[in-house]
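task queued by scheduler; priority normal; single chain, no ligands, no partner chains; default sampling; output format set to structure tokens
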Amino acid sequence: RDPMCSWCWAFRPVWTDLCDQLPRDLNVPRVVGGLAPDCNEPMSPDMRLKLKGIWQTIQERVSGTQFNFAFWEKCTPRRSTSNACRAALAEVRLSPAHEEQMIHSIQHAYHLDARNPSDISTLVDLAEASGLDRALFLLKFKAQPRRRCCMKRSTLHAVHLSAVFRIWWYVTPWGYIRLALAIAMPRLCSRR
């Protein structure tokens, strides 16, 4: 998943509930993969309109999901999510137990606080807020290869998780989501 994926933000409560109900000794890998590569160019007006429309659709269809549409006026959006993924991976290297916290911080900053996770300064601020040293985080962040930062994990995602997310998006009754994930997860999960 991508920390800037709006559907992941919408279904975060479901994911959290599911993880809370799994046996504690079951290791479920968190796979971070970028939706869009590094890019410093401002997002095209057409793409901005498309993504704003996706936010509106999600807010209408997924009960309780909120977005701060001021992001589109306050920030200079770029079609680049790899910095957010690199930040999550840097957090894992510094404090593995806080990966989920960093992902949530990025999601919250982007979707509710109208802060741009494509900006390295935003990510450094979020890391510091989670208790990490700014300089050390920036060092680990820059050590993540730009193009290949998520390749291994993205490959795992593409091979093993795509079916999970297809099921996740289209099956809405709570029981079916849990059953579908339980069927798809044995190849992904291992006992600790």
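post-processing summary
- The longest helix spans residues 151-170.
- Residues 148-192 have pLDDT under 50 and may be disordered.
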